[in-house]
Amino acid sequence: MTRIYGETALGLAWVIALAASLAVLFIGEVLGQTPCLLCWFQRAFMFPLAIVLGLGLWWRDDRVGRYGIALAIGGAAVALWHLGLYFGVIPERIQPCTATGPSCTDDNQLVLGVPIPLMALAAFAAIAALSALSLKDKHA
Hints:
The protein is an all-alpha fold. It has one domain: Bromodomain-like (Up-down Bundle), CATH 1.20.1550. It has helices spanning about 1-30, 35-60, 65-85, 115-135; strands at about 110, 115. It is a multi-pass membrane protein.
């Protein structure tokens, strides 16, 4: 019974990672919005999550959640930093966001009124929690 719950949690984590990966590809490739440097770093954590968690499900690897947790925590740290910069909590200027480059502080960073870094943070947090849940009651 534990395996079913673990696979369900892992499946949900994979769906979130896949949806987030496809969403940022849509924003960048279809809508033509160039990502800033911090968005690229977040993608560097999200894209492998979709692949690693998907392969873990395919191969029925009970321990793949460990990698989901590690990648999600890394991505969440970048997203949290990005969010702090977005809201002006962290006074450092976002680089390379310049007047001629992608902007991390204007309305281009909003989807349905929600900042993209906040969506990324929520996705990474959910993936980390679901990955941890997939490991619950597992023995070494």
